[in-house]
Task: structure prediction
Amino acid sequence: MTSPRIAHASLVLLWWGTVAASLHDGGAAGIALLQQATGISTGAARAIVLLGCAWDAAIGLLLLLRPGALTYRLAALGVVGMTIIATALMPALWLDPFGALLKNLPTLALLALLGEKGART
Result:
């Protein structure tokens, strides 16, 4: 398996792993975190978690079925958008020791590299 294929496979796993991690408990952990940090209602927190999961699942499916420059750009747009939203709602996530938001920086770099390669081929 070549390096671009390994990199691409890691992104597919990242997106689907994020969905699995977010929903493993029915979304309860994410809902509780959002409520604790922001004070929003359970319904609003659930909607945010489920919309994020739906986006991640769609991007994961696109990455799996339609890899290419456009898909990498859409994925990057989602990373930037979710990073902005998460920063606005819970800026302390930048200090999370597991890199909740910090991991988005190398993810964006990888998407940019694969997007350039996809645009050239």
